[in-house]
Amino acid sequence: MNYTSSKASESPAEPKGKRPPVLVDGVTLNGPTLDIREAESFLREAMPIVMEEAVWKATDVKEKVCEWRSPEQLKDLLDLELREGGEAHPQILQRCRDAIRYSVKTGHPLFFNQLYAGMDPYSLVGRFITEAINPSLYTYEVAPVFLLTEEAVLKKMIEIIGWQDGGDGIFSPGGSVSNMYAVNVARYHHCPDVKVLGLSALPRLVMFTSQECHYSVSKAAAFLGIGTNNVYVIPSDKRGKMIPAEFEKQVQRAKDEGALPFMVNATAGTTVLGAFDPLEEIADICERHNLWMHVDACWGGGALMSKKHRYLLQGIHRANSVAWNPHKMLMAGLQCCAFMVRDKTNLLQRCHSAQASYLFQQDKFYDVSYDTGDKSIQCSRKPDAFKFWLMWKAIGTKGLEERVDRALAMARYLAEEIKKRDGFRLVMEPEYTNVCFWYIPPSLRDTADGPEFWRKVHAVAPVVKERMMKEGSMMVGYQPHGDKANFFRQIIISPQVSREDMDFLLDQIHSLGMDL
């Protein structure tokens, strides 16, 4: 390393502007290289673009949900190539406008495509704050506010679940990761030696889940070395709920094979049908066979906020662990995913800790119990609870309850409208806010049900979806399910959605598909 200076010594009191340059390996180190005024100017120009284009226009029902372009067209429009030199600010600001313009506006009132939607202003400001401060939640010393708000949110969520003796938890980067946490913690609970000795020291483990579960359950089994063949899939009834008697049969089968059954994943709010497994009956079986009971309430957990609808999750207080995503029904903004355990023995810490001495020193000057990062499988971790905390503070538990009640009422309205209209047919009565239905164009309405009829109905939804995307009018998902032909799955979340929007949805589907 080459170090040079034009003076041998310099008074500390000498103004910085008069100091001679210091060179290290040919790099001048005096002063910051970032032009603060230029950076401030860019931010002052960029933020109004964000507010106007990504917030106000993107949530205006009169604007498009999306401006569809094919991948090749979009590559040309965005000029994605990264070059040696940088671009001027006007060009970068245009890049910002283009990124917003060609993105799907998920906060739009007519975006119904996924299990998240809408835009909450308090959550959005919370995200602005955390992105600006850019903390990481491993220790109190670097994220004091955000560790405390996470603790407060988890405590309240645990209370709402019904764990009267308390529990523990952590926010994770997605419901899939929460479900992986559940599998890992359940395995450690049954076989604590796995942390040190690994898979070779274990018997063959078997876990259980319904045929309607989220695909992250089988991914967890693959990722953690349990193996997808050791995930025993339990049949569901016609409404998509796990059949408890079939569950117990599969537990006995695993025992008869000499395997060790160790956990079940029950689903509270399935992805497609919005079904809720019978948690009380599942809990009874778990107690009889000493199984860890995990409830994937990522989607359906929002119903716990409603006195009117929390019956859907009756028995969740008996679970050993729960995954619940406030970014879904409660609109906390992506991503916001809590994993919680009914445990007060530091199970999360014991299962995941590595005791990194450069982060988790035990001789710090404050209470190190607030250094919660060793409970996580991550090192860097975003403060995802803060936006939910800020939103909760703003609208209160009552406001969250009203959102849930309104969403379910709107789903009921839509289902009743579907029954009244020619060419629309419910797949089943909705239990949650998943409203699943077929659109049958006029050309098929006099055709008797049968293989040929359903083959033709199967082709309708993809064409209607393509047309609505290219028009940009709205976004609704579709899928086949088991032996059922493609049907639309309408998801209702946002309080911005009106009865008129539901009427428009049905009118628009008919308009887009009536010639098929």
Automatic annotation (TrEMBL):
Protein name per its UniProtKB record: Glutamate decarboxylase like 1
Quaternary organization: Homodimer.
Gene Ontology cellular component annotations, sorted alphabetically: cytoplasm
Swiss-Prot/TrEMBL cofactor(s): pyridoxal 5'-phosphate
GO biological process: carboxylic acid metabolic process
Organism whose genome encodes this protein: Salmo trutta (Brown trout)
Protein keywords: Decarboxylase, Lyase, Pyridoxal phosphate
Residues the record lists as N6-(pyridoxal phosphate)lysine modifications: 328
GO molecular function, one term: pyridoxal phosphate binding
